[in-house]
Every structure is written in structure tokens, then in C-alpha cells.
Write a structure and sequence with these properties.
The chain is of the alpha/beta class. It contains eleven helices and nine strands. The protein has a six-stranded parallel sheet with strand order 1-4-3-2-5-6, with helices on both faces. Strand 2, helix 3 and strand 3 form a beta-alpha-beta unit. It starts with 6 loop residues before the first helix and ends in an 8-residue tail after the last strand. The structure holds adenosine monophosphate (AMP).
Length: 306
């Protein structure tokens, strides 16, 4: 019979979906020390942002594990855990298409048993911004990510810059708890600049936006780009920049800003003057949907000759 499979694809191993912690650990023990193991933690509902992380992991590691776990600990009481999009069949196909080796999809009861008595909280860097808006969120994230690091013991773990404060929390947690792994933070994947959703950061929450709300949401990226342009041209006054960003966002009546914050990239404390590296964090509400985005602003040192 004639095979219709592309020759390259026949070389690719099939992805295995694993639900048991012990089975996964048994498989991994045969690779440990010989192969570089990469982990991409996710909550599913895959989009190009997730796939980009998986592709990078595949390039840099021999074995790629994607964990798919809708973490109940990171949802607040008013946030709808039940509404979170779930489609294992679709997600499996997408992960397999980019060469993921193992999809680790444990039962909630295996990771968060009723008698779970240990949590991890990263205190200082969760005081503000998302941490203030969602009080139990980052302890939920840190606890589950630490568990995944413990279970899998990856050589490298991949996270998106899209959730900037989360990357700071995980970096700090990994440092404080002496996790011996490489953290790789990858750039935010955005909607096509020539589409109606021009520059909007990909997010599983975007599917809850109407078409007109999606169009309004493009203001986030426009506001971030404005700040970057102004800083690149030499503006350093964060109070002024903050006003300009707020003015741009206020042009979209259905977008309600929650915070517009110029911060130190590691402590996330607000700054008044652009530092060598400053992160601009944005959070807005559009209807019932909360969106976040960010950009790194670099105060390029001026050359004496210029
Ligand atoms: P989630 O499934 O939403 O918890 O996200 C899993 C990982 O994908 C996290 O490290 C996110 O930061 C990352 N991620 C989500 N959206 C994007 C995006 N648009 N670009 C790059 N990474 C993303």
C-alpha cells in the first residue's frame, strides 16, 4: 500500500498521554542523566503561545513533557474554574503536531488530594498587581509548579513572558527552594498585526471576548508600543508615561484599566524613572474578562559621542 505520511513525520515518535505520576516517573528514570528533559507547564486550551513554548522546548531538549493541569488552587472563589475551556482531544493533537513526547494530564485528586497540607507562598513579589487582585492565585501557581518540578525534575522549564509576574514568582521560588533547573522565559505570541485583533496577546480568555470587545482589546498592545516608542526616544518620566498610556486606553470606552504600572523587572516595585530595564505591566477589564499584558522597556545608555 502507498503511505500518505510525510517521510519526516514517520520519524517522529507518537506522543504518549500519561495520567499516573508513578508511570511518568518510571519512564523518565530511564532517560535521566542521558537525555535533556524539558517541561512546559500548562492548563490546556492550547494556542500559538503554548505551541511556541513547546517548539522551543523541542529544539533545546531531547524529551519534552507538557503538563496539562487545570489548577484548582490558582482560581479565586469568584473566578470560574468550571468555565475554564477543556478539550483534551484537541490539545493532544496540537501538542503531538509539534513533537511533544509526553502529555502529562494527571487527575486533580492526584495533585491536589483533600489532605494536601503544604503550600508555597512567595511573599514579596506577589504583594502587588495580579497578586493584589487575585489573593490566593500565586500561592496556587507556585505550589503546583513546585510539585511538577519535584515529580518531573526537568533540566529546563518553559514559561511565557505574557504572564510576567508569574515568571518572577517562579524564578524566585526556584531560587529560594534550590531547584536545579534552567528557566526559559519566552516572548509573548500575539495576534497577527494585520488582523482585526492586531497585536492582542494570545490567551485562552480571548475566546470569551465578542468581536467588538476583541477590537477594543487591541488598545493594550497599542498602549505598550506607545510607551516603548517614547522610552526609545529618551522619555524617562514614568508619571508622564503613565498618563499617556492611561489616555490611550481611555479612548476605548469598554476597556476599564485596573493597573498601569512601571516596575523594577525583578522586585516589581513601582519606579518613577525608567531604569536600565523597566517592565510596564497592564491589566484591564473588558466586560467580565480580565486581560493582562506587558512590555520590557530598556533605557539604552547614551553614547558619549552622540
Ligand atoms: P496557561 O495554560 O495559560 O497557564 O499558560 C501556560 C504557559 O503558556 C504559561 O507559561 C504562559 O505564560 C504561556 N503563555 C500563555 N499565553 C502566551 C502567549 N500569548 N505567548 C507566550 N506564552 C504564553
Amino acid at each position: 500500500s502507498i503511505s500518505t505520511t510525510h517521510p519526516l513525520e514517520t520519524q517522529r515518535n507518537q506522543m504518549k498521554t500519561i495520567t499516573s505520576i508513578l508511570s511518568l516517573q518510571k519512564i523518565l528514570s530511564s532517560y535521566r542523566g542521558k537525555k535533556r528533559i524539558g517541561l512546559v507547564p500548562t492548563m490546556g486550551a492550547f494556542h500559538d503561545g503554548h505551541l511556541a513554548l513547546m517548539r522551543t522546548a523541542k529544539k533545546e531538549c531531547d524529551i519534552v513533557i507538557v503538563s496539562l493541569f487545570v489548577n484548582p488552587l490558582q482560581f479565586g472563589p469568584s473566578e470560574d474554574l468550571k468555565r475554564y475551556p477543556r478539550d483534551l482531544a484537541r490539545d493532544s493533537k496540537m501538542a503531538e503536531s509539534v513533537g511533544v513526547d509526553f502529555l502529562f494530564a494527571p487527575m486533580a485528586s492526584a495533585i491536589v488530594p483533600p489532605d494536601l497540607d503544604t503550600t508555597i507562598s512567595v511573599s514579596q513579589v506577589t504583594k502587588r498587581w495580579e497578586g493584589a487582585a487575585r489573593p490566593a492565585h500565586f500561592a496556587g501557581v507556585a505550589t503546583i509548579v513546585a510539585k511538577l518540578f519535584q515529580i518531573i525534575k526537568p533540566d529546563a522549564a518553559y514559561f511565557g513572558q505574557k504572564d510576567y509576574q508569574q515568571t518572577v514568582v517562579i524564578r524566585k521560588m526556584a531560587k529560594d527552594l534550590h531547584f536545579d533547573l534552567m528557566l526559559r522565559i519566552r516572548p509573548t505570541v500575539r495576534e497577527d498585526l494585520y488582523s482585526g485583533a492586531c497585536g492582542l496577546a494570545k490567551s485562552s480568555r480571548n475566546q470569551f471576548l465578542s468581536l467588538s470587545e476583541k477590537a477594543s482589546a487591541t488598545v493594550l498592545y497599542r498602549a505598550l508600543c506607545h510607551a516603548k516608542k517614547r522610552v526609545d526616544k529618551g522619555e524617562q518620566d514614568c508619571t508622564l508615561l503613565q498618563k499617556e498610556v492611561a489616555a490611550i486606553i481611555s479612548l476605548e470606552p469598554d476597556v476599564r484599566p485596573d493597573y498601569i504600572a512601571f516596575c523594577h523587572p525583578e522586585t516589581l516595585e513601582p519606579v518613577l524613572k525608567i531604569l536600565e530595564k523597566t517592565v510596564l505591566l497592564l491589566a484591564v477589564w473588558i466586560g467580565k474578562v480580565r486581560l493582562i499584558d506587558n512590555i520590557i522597556l530598556a533605557n539604552a545608555p547614551r553614547h558619549a559621542s552622540l
